[in-house]
Fold these 4 entries.
Entry 1:
Amino acid sequence: QLKQAYYRLSYSYAARDVLERNRELLRKLLRITEARYSVGKAAQQDVFKTQTQLSILEIKLVDLQREHNAREAEISSLLNRVPGSSLGRPRDMQPQELAPSIEELYASASRNAPMLLRDQKMIQRAQIAMNMARKEYYPDYTVSFGYFNQGSMPSMYQARVDFKLPAYFWRKQRAGLTEQAQSLAESRHTYAATTQSLHFRIKDDYLMATTSSQLMKLYGHTVVPQATLALESSLASYETGAVDFLSVLTNYIAVVEYEMNYYEELQNFYLALSRLEGMTAVPLIQ
């Protein structure tokens, strides 16, 4: 839980950087549009559209600030720190590879997952209880020996063997054994169900991590650089009147969206790794 709060806090910083950087670019576009409007080369609606995009950015920044404050409060609570204390900026998340295979994660979870260890203890307890119920079929016996010192008279010795036979085992003992056998079967079914659920969660988070890793590479190496070049080219052409305002605005919105998507996938990648660590006890985050 602490790691997930930490990575969400790191995402709020990265996303805010993206929006603030692109806000300056949007202000530049607004100045160019106002200048073109003042000489009759741009429509008034272009100015209004740019101002609307600036307002939308401000809304997103306010929402990110709320998320930022909430994650700081969560971390302070988990660490038992004074409420409102500043935590500083976390280390920026960086792309990394997911080294272990899913089979290795399954094997580690079988050995170390707390929920499976709990169910294994329940099975052991049920087995012990059933073994104790079986012993109720055996007769109880007591062997005792006594010595009596009678002074001037000869000493006395006494030996005794007592047997307690389970005469009604078909009613009492058999019912007790049946109950413990059913409890053992239930514990084994619970263990199997927990194993299946755990494997599903591991598979789900593993797929999320690998998918997010692939998307990060696409956004970081291809989509974002290409969209940025398209925006810079269209903005330079817009100043000379070679392209229309809508093309520039569309390219700008695309750049912001793709950069935000990149950091969302980076956050999803680290959140999935932190959950996998909790389920498998394998250190995955470098």
Note: The two ends are 18 Å apart (CA to CA).
Entry 2:
Amino acid sequence: MAQADAVVVCTGFDHVYESEAYDRQWELPKGELETIRQAGLLNNRTVVVLHAGGAVGMDSWIHLPQAVLHAWYLGETSAQAIVDVLLGKINPSGKLPISIARSLADYESMQGYPPDYASVSLARVQGGQGDPSRRKVQDLVYREGLMVGYRQFDTVGPDPLFPFGFGLSYSRFAYRDLEVVREDGKWVVSCSIENCGDRGGAEVVQLYVRPSLYGREYPFQQLRGFEKAYLEVGGSTRIVFTLGERDFSEYSVTLGTWKVREGDYCVAVGSSSRDIRLEGQVEIKKSPDHGKM
């Protein structure tokens, strides 16, 4: 292993550890963790290919491999797709639809979770784990409100290991020339992106809206749009988003409808929730006919 040009460690959770009707553990199985550690210590060109349906504990080993490819569950042609990415035949452009925390306890939603959530075994699965008639099921209190995912991490912390919207490419993309204009009662946000790398690739441009005053009831920022564009080397294009009143509104339980939240906002465009490249400002006021049906 130490003499190999590179080492690829394929790891994750099989259909017993991760399936329907129950939750899997946060950390990889102990044997898998030891394999990653040994490979990373013996060969500094180690790549980890991770198969899982969501976030996984990586903080204890993320410093060892040179790269991690989160493959999720790709199906029958997983092997060919992964090989094409690792060998550079395909330029990756995926972005995380979740935030990956450093610790499971960092997610506020875990505060009221049952302590035995990860007690998965083949015997329990075959015995009907997840079946209310064969295993005790308890109610969970939804205390975290809007503090879920990137809304929590970006508003009250802590910093995640990998933020929402994060994803690597073999290309580099430059963002420039942000414009924010008012047209026909809506805000049009546009910017240019250019492929500054040495091969064609795709970028997912993300638009976030940030209120000047924020807190647990109204997060620091919220995703309001995203566009994917493929560009050849040196190519550029214009990305355009349109924002309406709903994008600056909050739901009123008392009124039973959406209510515009007046004030100053920052419109932020970037490559992830933590990689903002361009910012602009808008002032939001209710339209005269707001709330009319």
Note: The two ends are 68 Å apart (CA to CA).
Entry 3:
Amino acid sequence: MGQFSISDLENISGIKAHTIRMWEQRYSILQPVRTHTNIRTYSDDDLRRLLNVATLCGQGHRISKVARLSEQELGAAVIACHTDPHDYARQVNTLLAATLEMDEPQLNTLLNSAIKQLGFEEAIMQVGYPFLQRIGILWQAGSMNPAQEHLVTNLIRQKIIAATDTLTPVLPSKSRRWVLFLPEGELHELALLFMNYALRARAYHVLYLGQNMPQQELQAVCKVYQPHTVCTVLTAVPERSQVQAYINELAERCVGSTLVLYGSLMAAQDLVLPASVSNPRLMTDFLSFIETVSPSQKE
């Protein structure tokens, strides 16, 4: 069971600490326990209830009425108020609450609703990414167990693959060509899968090689496929001290191709990038990058 400070609750829920204290004192919506040093800590149940209360109050419901709802009534009211597709913060809070309960049907319903109302790419960017960032905070706090994290990532992975399968394929001879892969030992695939979707949605041809790709195989791939661009995501691999060497070797193996390198390992240190390398720091930067190619260049 997680133990949260009031500042943790503020960071995760978006509700100011003084508001949380007021709700706790006036309406007893949370049940903190005190440590031996007399510091209040909050449980997973407290966080889940706060997320649901915040969702309803954000929709204009009075806290005095919301506080009287049972857990079942609270959950039903949250589902019923899921109407504004542009209230992204509320949607993220509702997804987090469903994750803490391991409520896969609710997660699926919420994600499908966001996709239907916003369109797939907008739903991922405005709801999916902030949701995953909050999941990361919970993971760091020790309050997201592996089963919960795997439930979320695999569900979103399925959504991306399903959406990609609906896109009209293009011929490699008629469009600019991209190779997408993850380094050997790298398994964090969600960002690369979304890049694959975004590229195909813009009529690029993509050779998707997926996880755990040995770098020495890329030279042969590039010789046969002749990609305009080679893209990878560096999250956990290679070792931080080996990132510069990995980049240099990749540039040597993929001569004639632009390299797009994304991920936390690219942002966490000073690197000397070859002229052929582009480093979008955010997914929005990546989307802007692929929009810079005019239709005539794709043909």
Note: The radius of gyration is 22 Å.
Entry 4:
Amino acid sequence: MTPEDAPSNLVEVFRSLRMPDCDQQTLILSAVGIHSWTVVRGGVFVVVVPEESAALAIRHLTEVAQEARAPVPIAKPPKLQPRAWTGSILYVLVMMAVAYAAGIDALGFDWLEAGVLHGAIPTTHEWWRVITALTLHADVGHLLSNLAFGTVFGFLASRALGGGVAWAGILIGAMMGNGLDAIVMPTEQRSLGASTAVFAALGILSAYAWSLETQSNLRWAKRLGPLIAGVILLGFLGAGGERTDVTAHVTGFFSGCLLGVALGKIPERRFDSPALQLAAGAFTIAAIAAAWLFAMR
């Protein structure tokens, strides 16, 4: 319908110095079935509608304008917990202590033979090996690599969850990962090293961040960002090397993701409890000590 065909009882609902602004408003109105025209009045462009449609047109244009001005939702960052380095320092000390003890056969004990993970565990039921194997390494390079990545990922997890909860989660995720690895690996295969724990930490970080993102109104691509980043790091860090136990890396990451989702369901204020952090940290140390006591029997 042209302006010449428009009815005489027209009411102004929008005006602007720019014609494109008026074109946008007429397009919005046409989408809801309201006829409108753009005319020039007093040197400005004016959108007019029939008098009986004026109230509906104004309400609809107002709603659209309010939606356009709505702030873009921003994901709430996780609360950062204090003393996050404490767990990483203890991690380094435990790994170094076991490496030294294994290197000198402390107590006249073959640490590698007693603590390594192997595929016969489902038959022998030596399930303590899912923990002891985490503290053993093939050589100095293997140890230093896991110390570097484990310290960083453990620190980041501790910043989000607190040192005690983070390292307890990392240990549990690594135990689950090693347990799954032992079930599927050949009987004669052996595996050792903290890399399963490293990737469990990465899985916890990725899934916990994703869990927080899902509680926001961000687009799905933005919400999936932490998980996608975790998978990329898994592929980059966990798939190389002839002696690499890729299965342990994948199962560790997957187990960590499950724990990260579960931890994401817990209100963040719960992690502020010193008693909870202390209890979780004590459990982690006690579990490692108990596993080695079983191995030394």
Note: Residues 85-295 form a domain with the Rhomboid-like fold fold (CATH 1.20.1540.10).
